[in-house]
Design brief:
Layout (H helix, E strand, L loop, with lengths): L13 E8 L3 E8 L6 H9 L14 E3 L13 H12 L1
Parallel strand pairs: 2-3
Antiparallel strand pairs: 1-2
Length: about 90
Amino acid sequence: MRGRGLAEQRVTSRQSTSNEDPVRGERLVAFYTDPDIAPAELGERLAATSLPRLWLPKREDRRFIESIPSLGTGKVDLRGVRMLAAERSA
């Protein structure tokens, strides 16, 4: 987002959770709401951060959704996000 004015920056939501994985125990799943970002571009942006590679979801586990599930209070519905991840991996 460097080089863009604050007004030009798109506000996006992102949330991650994990699913059971028969080989590794669990795998990260990341949801994002910006339709203009491809999973590969999201991976490049994540790789440019200081996060350890172990904490980065694989390309097939980066998923676009229209909106992040939320509670009536406006907080992220963590149970809803986990259920969404389970549904999408089944």
